[in-house]
Design brief:
about 325 residues; mainly beta; single chain
Length: about 325
Amino acid sequence: NVTSIGGDLWIESNATLTSLTGMENVTSIAGFLRIGNNATLTSLTGLDNVTSIGGYIHIYGNATLTSLTGLDNVTSIGGGLNISNNDTLTNLSGLDNVTSIGGALSIYYNDALTCLSGLENLTSIAGDLSIGHWYYGGNLSLTSLTGLNNLTSIGGALGIYYNPALTSLTGLDNIDATSIDSLFIIDNSFLSTCEVQSVCDYLAAPNGTIEIYNNAPGCNSQEEVEEACAVSVKSLSPEDEISIFPNPANRQLTISSKDGATIEEVIIYNQIGQIVHQEKPVNDIIDISQLHTGMYLIEVVSGQRKIREKLMIEKF
């Protein structure tokens, strides 16, 4: 029969706790909500009627948590939101009605997290936005930031760290650059498309620290991103613009433009950004027989377009 909590709620280090059933009548938490290191907790069902949380939310170290379902009726968070080290969490569904966060948003070290779906209604963050962490590491499987499409303002630094599967910053396009006070894009080994509107606008009139390095070609330095912004080169979806077949590949690739445009050059980079192959296709074919098994980044140049995609080579 508890309906409100006037201070903090901590649910931590309960080795056999599987659910939060029993808290269905709680509607408000005035302080912090910390849910961490509960080895068998699979969802947050039980908090379904909570509509407001006055402090910080920290959800961390829950090895079997697959969903944030249970926070579905929360619309605003008074403090920050930290989601970290949840090994089986694949998306952020359950936060679908959150529109504002009163502090920082940090998402890092969630190895199975592939996307940020669940944050589509988030419009403002009062503190830093960190996808990955400069010290603890990033999100190994994260491929897309598009869940942040409606975010228009942050109140601190924008940091993208150690997300090895991320190829584009698409999803951050609508952030007002004047709300960003520093920019860090570091150690994202396949991130090649950083010239989204918010980043370009910030680089044109920066008001804080800028660090951009150890990413894929096209986003490996401040100068590379500024150049991409200046010429408005788009990193477009390969499925829509070109055909790259097969992928995974073995000895050769067939590359053709779906709109009939001439492909001027194909460049293949290894995982540390070195060019390992470069040629103009002959009859839409390039020979890659000299490349070893592994993951690469392929860049196709056609007119003012540069289309980049991950390429897997497997020697059978």
